[in-house]
Amino acid sequence: MHIKKIDLTNFRNYNRLSLELKPGITILQGANAQGKTNFLEAIYLLATTRSPFARSDRELVNWLVLEPPLPFAKVEALVSRGEEETRLELTIVGEANSAGEWRFRKKVRINGVNKKLADLLGCLRAVLFCPRDIDIIAGAPELRRRFLDIALCQIDARYCRALSLYNRIVEQRNHLLKRAREGELREDELLFWDEGLVEQGSIVTVTRWEALGNIAHWLRRIHKELTGGQEVLQAVYIPSALDEPIPPPRLISPASVEEIKTAFKGRLQATKQKEFEQGVTLVGPHRDDVRFMLDGHDVAIYGSRGQQRSAALSLRLAEMEFITAKSGDVPVLLLDEVMSELDAGRRGQLMKLISRAHQVVITTLEWEVFRQEFLSKASLFTVTEGVIKPYQRS
Ligand SMILES: Nc1ncnc2c1ncn2[C@@H]1O[C@H](COP(=O)(O)OP(=O)(O)OP(=O)(O)O)[C@@H](O)[C@H]1O
Ligand SMILES: [Mg+2]
Questions:
Q1: Whole-number Å distance between alpha carbons of 335 and 267
Q2: What value does the mean pLDDT take over residues 93-118?
Q3: Which ligand 1 atom is the nearest neighbour of the CA of 59?
Q4: How far is CA 361 from CA 33, 141, 197, 220, 381, in A?
């Protein structure tokens, strides 16, 4: 699958942009703060309905139009998949309420027809690597869970539903536990929520666990290639519903939903007293984690910066393979500042690895990080203050 054309209106620092893209490699070069990351963000937003960077939709709308009568930002793309072409439109519109406060909503059109936001999922698949992905490896567990959730929501609507239901149940349950702490609730009132928690939570855990198993398989191969055979990178899922420490054999095959359910129920029962004391849900996929091991050592703890960054990159490439295998579509690969902090050997291997994607968009501060022969095969553009122009090679 690839994007043939992209149109931005009032998106971040892009006032109006219309750009035709080709399959293969596209490189966008520009100084700091010109709009390189914003461009990738727009594509990723269209693929996932969410920005990986913005905390609110308002941030995506160009500052200069954030005023009446109608502040809006729009991202459009013409997506080609085999013989088929699809026109995708995502508009973020601000509406003022009677108190004069702005609220922003997203509207979707597919081939000119109004659709629900969720209908956009699957129309364009993308994988984005950005410098802060190092945090997936080295940062908080929440980021590792989010990595799996976003990858899975792009390909599995059932998972997406279970996850959002589960999150609502946790919220509701936490609310009740807080009341319980204040002595306003009997334990049996929680039972209804416990059932939902275990039901949906087990689906979430098992699906993530299975997905990670798949991803780990690719990760190992890709990372070996990226590092020229030097490093063996492994990933293991750590479900909070199972008793820790988990003996390694249990990590090899994913437990069935029923097995997890039983374990989950047991753990829930065992931690209930603590939950009442703390007023929060302590067991479940919202407490699961993933551990990355490099030659047997935890990368988050022992890995060098370059190793952590390489691991994050391999993880994104593994995500691409995972989405391809599950959906049959090769996602568009978006690489933000991918070359920095990699040594020459890894850079060279990376350029080979990405050739598997049908379309790759790479941003860079400098052309020099690429080999001439690589540049000669790519479409080159420069980005200056929200304007993208073909690069004229001298
Ligand atoms: N809503 C917005 N309206 C207008 N400008 C915005 C908006 N949001 C962000 N910007 C501006 O867009 C500019 C470009 O951001 P972007 O992150 O794309 O830069 P970049 O080219 O990736 O730079 P770097 O090399 O530093 O990563 C920033 O200077 C930022 O201030
Ligand atoms: Mg940037």
A1: 41
A2: 92
A3: 1
A4: 18, 29, 40, 24, 11
13 lines ligand 1 (CB under 6 A): yes
Exposed, middle or buried, 52 (CB in 10 Å: 0-12/13-18/19+)?
middle
Q: Is the CB of 51 under 6 A from ligand 1?
A: no
Question: Which of 27-31, 127-131, 186-190, 202-206 is the least confident region?
Answer: 186-190
pLDDT in tens, 250-261: 444 455 678 888
CA pair distance 286, 201, nearest whole angstrom: 9
The total number of residues written for the chain in this structure: 394
268 within 8 A of 198, measured Cβ to Cβ: yes
| Nearest alpha carbon, ligand 1 atom 9 | 12
Full-model pTM: 0.93
For 183-238, the pLDDT digits (tens) are: 777 777 888 899 999 999 999 998 998 899 899 999 999 999 999 999 999 999 99
Q: Residue 260 has what pLDDT?
A: 84
What is the rounded average pLDDT of the residues 104-131?
A: 96
Q: What are the pLDDT digits (tens) for 333-380?
A: 999 999 988 999 999 999 999 998 999 999 999 999 999 999 999 999
Angle between helices 141-153 and 305-327 (to 10 degrees): 20
Q: How far is CA 27 from the centre of its chain?
A: 22
Nearest to 26 by CA among 368, 357, 387: 357
CATH no., domain 140-301:
1.20.1050.90
Q: Hey, which CATH number is domain 2-125+329-390, 3.40.228.10, 2.60.120.330, 3.40.50.300, 3.30.70.120? A: 3.40.50.300
Residue 214 CA to residue 197 CA, distance in Å, equals 25
Is 38 a pocket residue for ligand 1 (Cβ < 6 Å)?
Answer: yes
Please state the atom number of ligand 1 nearest to the C-alpha of residue 383: 21
Does residue 29 have its Cβ closer than 6 Å to ligand 1? no
Residue 52 beta carbon below 6 angstroms from any ligand 1 atom: no
The DSSP bridge pattern shows strands 2-11 and 379-384 to be: unpaired
Å from CA of 35 to ligand 1 middle: 5
Domains in the chain: boundaries: 2-125+329-390, 140-301
Q: Are both 2-125+329-390 and 140-301 of the same fold?
A: no
